[in-house]
Design a protein that fits this description.
It is built from 17 helices and eleven strands. It is of the alpha+beta class. The protein folds into four domains: about 180 residues, no CATH class; about 80 residues, no CATH class; about 30 residues; about 60 residues, no CATH class. It is extended.
C-alpha cells in the first residue's frame, strides 16, 4: 500500500497561484513581461496636452503627404455625409413643419461665422476631425451662427491637467459629477496655444467618439494605426529605393593603388565628377581599365520584394479594421473580387457608415434644437398650443447604394409599398427630397401635356411614358368579365 505524501510548501504556493490567477490574460511570461503592470489611468492622463499635440502633428503630416490617409479622409467625408444630412420636422402641425424646414434651409446655406461653408461642408468637417484631432468643437455664437473649433485649440492654459484631481481635463472644466462646465479655447500662434479663454458649456458643443464613460476629450481614431502607417511608409521607401537601383546599372571601379584616390579627393568638387571618380557609360563603347583596376556592378539582389504587396495590404487591412473602412475601399480594389463578395463587403462597410451617421445625427440634433429655441425666443416662429414638442424632427441620412442597381430599384419599390421606406429615403440617394422629386415630376407631366397638345397627340402619356404597361389579373375573373360582356350586363368593377 502506497502512502500519500504530505504536500510541501512549493506545491501549496503553486495551488494558491492557480486560485489567485485564474486568467491566462494576466499571467506574465518571458515574452510578456510587462502585461498588466501599467497603472489604470484616465484618458486625459494617458494622452496629456503635449503628447496630444505631437500625435496630432504626426497625423496631420500623414494627411498631407500619405495617399492612404488622404483616401481614408475622403471616404469618411463623402460616404458618411454624402450630399448632406437634413432634418425633417415632425411636429403635429404641418404649417409649423413647413416654416421650420424653410428656416433651417436658409440657415444651412451659410451656418458658420466665416461664411465659407454650407451645412454639408460643416458636417464633413465634423466627421473628419475625430480621425486626426480626436474631437472638434462647435461654438454657439450670439449672432445665431456656429464657429468650428479644431481640437488642437482646446487645452489647459499651463499645459498641465495630468493630475487626477485637476478640475481641468485637457481643456475641459468638469464638476464633481463629471459634467462639463466649460471649455478652455485659445488660438494657435506659431504652433503654440495662446490667448486661452473660458467658454461656458452652454455655448459649446464637443463632438467626439467615446471610448469610456468617464471621458472628456476624444482620442484620434488613427492613434492606434500610427505605427502600422509608419511601417508601410518606410517599407515603401525602402522598396522604392531598391527598385530604382534594380532599374539602373551602376558600376564601381576598384583600384589597388590608394594613392590615386587620395589625389582625386584633392580636386575641386566641380571637377571630381568629370575628371575624378564618376564616369558615364554609353552603349556600344569600349572602356579600357588601368592596370590594377576592376569593375563591379551594384545589384539589388532580387529587390523589390515580390511579396511586398501582400505585406503592405496586411498592415492596411489592420488600419481599415480599426476605423471601419475595408482596405478594398481604401485602395479601390473592390472590383477585383467576386460579385457576392463585393456585396458582402459593402454591407459590412455600410454598418460602419450607419454608426457614424447615428452619432452625427445625435450631435446635429443639438444644433437644431438650439436654432429652434432662438427662433422661438426672437419671435420668428410661434408655436401653436396643440404642439407639445416643437423640437421633434426626423433626420434624413444619405442612403447607401448597392452594386446591383436593378435589384436595388426593385427592393426600394417594395420597401416603399410596405411602408418600411419613405420617398425621402429613396430620393436621398440622389441628393433630392421627396418634395423636390415630385415637383420635378409634376413639371415634366405638365410639359408633356403641353407638347401633346402642340403636336396633336391623343394622349400625353405616350410622350411621358412610351413603354408598354402590362397588368396581371385572375384568369377566372377575366372569364367572368367576358361572359358579362356577351350577356350585355355591366361587369363588376
Amino acid at each position: 500500500m502506497e502512502l500519500a505524501t504530505k504536500p510541501n510548501i512549493w506545491s501549496r504556493v503553486k495551488t494558491a497561484g492557480k486560485i489567485l490567477f485564474g486568467y491566462d490574460a494576466v499571467k506574465n511570461t518571458r515574452f510578456r513581461k510587462t502585461r498588466g503592470l501599467q497603472p489604470l489611468l484616465s484618458e486625459e492622463q494617458e494622452l496629456p496636452n503635449y503628447e496630444r499635440d505631437r500625435l496630432i502633428s504626426t497625423l496631420m503630416d500623414f494627411k498631407r503627404n500619405d495617399p492612404v490617409v488622404k483616401a481614408i479622409s475622403r471616404l469618411r467625408r463623402t460616404d458618411v455625409v454624402g450630399t448632406g444630412i437634413r432634418p425633417q420636422p415632425a411636429t403635429t402641425d404641418d404649417a409649423l413643419n413647413d416654416l421650420l424646414i424653410a428656416r433651417w434651409d436658409y440657415f444651412a446655406s451659410s451656418p458658420e461665422v466665416t461664411g465659407s461653408m454650407n451645412m454639408t461642408l460643416v458636417q464633413q468637417e465634423l466627421v473628419d476631425a475625430p480621425l486626426f484631432f480626436g474631437d472638434i468643437g462647435v461654438l454657439l455664437t450670439r449672432s445665431g451662427k456656429i464657429q468650428l473649433i479644431e481640437g488642437d485649440r482646446i487645452g489647459n492654459p499651463t499645459g498641465g491637467g495630468s493630475l487626477s484631481d485637476d478640475p481641468v481635463k485637457n481643456g475641459v472644466i468638469v464638476g464633481r459629477s463629471g459634467k462639463p462646465r466649460g471649455y478652455m479655447v485659445g488660438q494657435r500662434l506659431n504652433g503654440t496655444l495662446q490667448n486661452i479663454k473660458r467658454i461656458p458649456a452652454r455655448d459649446f458643443l464637443l463632438y467626439f467618439k467615446r471610448m469610456r464613460p468617464q471621458q472628456f476629450r476624444g482620442i484620434p481614431e488613427l492613434a492606434s494605426c500610427v505605427d502600422s502607417l509608419q511601417d508601410v511608409s518606410e517599407y515603401e521607401e525602402t522598396e522604392m529605393m531598391a527598385a530604382k537601383v534594380a532599374a539602373s546599372l551602376s558600376a564601381v571601379v576598384k583600384k589597388n593603388d590608394a594613392a590615386q584616390f587620395e589625389l582625386i579627393d584633392r580636386l575641386p568638387e566641380s571637377d571630381q565628377d568629370e575628371v575624378g571618380r564618376l564616369q558615364q557609360f554609353e552603349p556600344g563603347n569600349f572602356h579600357y581599365l588601368e592596370p590594377g583596376e576592376d569593375v563591379s556592378t551594384i545589384s539589388a539582389n532580387g529587390r523589390p520584394n515580390v511579396d511586398g504587396i501582400e505585406f503592405v495590404m496586411y498592415h492596411l487591412r489592420k488600419v481599415g479594421a480599426a476605423i471601419g473602412i475595408p482596405v478594398e475601399m481604401i485602395m479601390s480594389t473592390i472590383g477585383q473580387s467576386s460579385f457576392s463578395a463585393s456585396q458582402g463587403l459593402l454591407l459590412q462597410y455600410q454598418g460602419a457608415l450607419e454608426e457614424n451617421q447615428r452619432q452625427l445625427v445625435y450631435f446635429l440634433d443639438k444644433i437644431y434644437r438650439w436654432k429652434v429655441a432662438r427662433w422661438i425666443a426672437d419671435g420668428d416662429i410661434s408655436i401653436p398650443s396643440t404642439v407639445l414638442d416643437p423640437y421633434a424632427a426626423r433626420w434624413q441620412t444619405p442612403a447607401f447604394r448597392w452594386v446591383n442597381k436593378a435589384a436595388q430599384v426593385a427592393a426600394d419599390v417594395r420597401y416603399v409599398q410596405l411602408g418600411a421606406l419613405s420617398l425621402d429615403d429613396v430620393a436621398s440617394q440622389f441628393g433630392y427630397t421627396a418634395e423636390s422629386a415630385m415637383r420635378r415630376k409634376a413639371q415634366n407631366i405638365r410639359q408633356a401635356q403641353s407638347l401633346a397638345d402642340e403636336y396633336g397627340l391623343d394622349d400625353w402619356k405616350e410622350l411621358f411614358n412610351p413603354y408598354t404597361v402590362s397588368a396581371s389579373a385572375n384568369f377566372t375573373d377575366l372569364l367572368n368579365r367576358d361572359d358579362d360582356l356577351d350577356s350585355g350586363q355591366t361587369p363588376p368593377k
